[in-house]
Amino acid sequence: MSDASLLKDALFIGGEWVKPAGLSGFDVTNPSTGDVLVSVPKGGKAEAAAAIDAAEAAFPEWRDRTAKERATIIRRWHDLIVENVEDLARILTAEQGKPLAEARGEILYGAAFFEFYAEEAKRIYGELLPSYARDRRLAVLKQPIGVVAAITPWNFPMAMIPRKAAPALAAGCTMVLKPASATPLSALALGELAQRAGLPAGVFNVVPGAAGAVGDELVSSAKVRKVTFTGSTEVGRDLMAKAAGTIKKVALELGGNAPVVVFDDADIEAAVAGTIATKFRNMGQTCVCANRIYVQSGVYDRYLAALTKAVEAMKVGDGFAEGVEQGPLIDGAAVAKCEEHIADALSKGASVVTGGGRHALGGSFFQPTILKDATQDMLIARDETFGPVAPVFRFETEAEAIRHANDTEFGLAAYFFTKDNARIWRFGEALEFGVIGVNTGATSYEGAPFGGMKASGIGREGSRHGIDEFLEIKYMCIAGISGL
């Protein structure tokens, strides 16, 4: 690294790097090698409470700054991330395992949210309503909600944190962040850059630690007025229930079970490229990655052959190695889940086209896998795999495709490929998902709303809608205004 001071091993509370006495630490390991990178203090209830107090104390001054003043600091934070992209990428690859080129892309994508919301801070508009009486004026104000707790996942730490912090801080809120224990170093590095950007003490705090201690304190505290979480649907349900005790707002970006639908009239080359982009990004460890691939009978064999060729060409290895496109899975539990889904599919009639098991590299490396003849009764059709396993289903009619695609409790992302313009609208409107990719597997953009339907969550991140998640609407009825 060019700047070793970005690698932190302390908690960031109230603008200070602290290692509270008596706290145990937890090791952050490289999933490619198993090597320990650094030991980070394991924050608990007391540390979470201290961070909440710091955020509450910082809130009035940050809230009262002009939008332009907040925007200037947030934009400086963006610039520092871009300037330090190489060091940040090395931190991300070391703790998460993804290839270095992919890590760079994630960091720049995350930085774009700071750039976008630095501008949106100046576009939080209220309203003057037509009055029902001559001596009254009716005003609608939008004001920051207060202290925000953010709980983020390990798969995209450099993207998920900015996607929450940028709109929250732009709106005038302060934040306490609990990053995933597998990837706290990215969060702490962002905290260091926030401090360098001039963010006032207490506006942004980072407390790694156990979910049962830090997470519970954040969700249960009456001082926290909003919880924003990205993770599993199971945990999301639990957080929502706990947040009900203090009637705080929640935003939940939860699990997915994304379908890819390839019609007979699709551009097969584009369909394969789109499938690779959505299925094998981050080794299949994304909430929007393809989990079920439905291909119409007329192009099934042709598509399968082209997808197999593309998958077999991918290089697996350490994320720091030249030309690697697939790194390791995050841990042994992720490998076991891939194995479980494959075994279940094979027992019910599917067969392996390529891959199918652990990689020769050992550890948590797994072979990019394609299964053919998948059916709806298989576990892989219902449960999110979160790994590089691509099951290919066959379908005959458009009606069948929409029925199978929507046959899930989840509704985050979906993709389909066709050249029929009428079908684009018809099929897109019928899909019960919050994000739809048409003839593409890459939809991410900071200016577009991201979020799911059904059990995939509540609320939206990104776009102008994302900042509304951190604002309260206040109505003022002002009487006593006499006419001339």
UniProtKB/TrEMBL annotation:
Active-site residues per Swiss-Prot or TrEMBL entry: E253
UniProt-recorded Gene Ontology molecular function terms: oxidoreductase activity
Entry-linked InterPro entries: Ald_DH/histidinol_DH, Ald_DH_C, Ald_DH_CS_CYS, Ald_DH_CS_GLU, Ald_DH_N, Aldehyde_DH_dom, Aldehyde_DH_Superfamily, Succ_semiAld_DH
Residue span, Aldehyde dehydrogenase domain: 17-475
Pfam families: Aldedh (PF00171)
Enzyme class: oxidoreductase
EC number(s) per entry: 1.2.1.-
PROSITE patterns: ALDEHYDE_DEHYDR_CYS (PS00070), ALDEHYDE_DEHYDR_GLU (PS00687)
Keyword tags: Oxidoreductase
Sequence similarity: Belongs to the aldehyde dehydrogenase family.
PANTHER family: SUCCINATE-SEMIALDEHYDE DEHYDROGENASE, MITOCHONDRIAL (PTHR43353)
UniProt-recorded name of the protein: NAD-dependent succinate-semialdehyde dehydrogenase
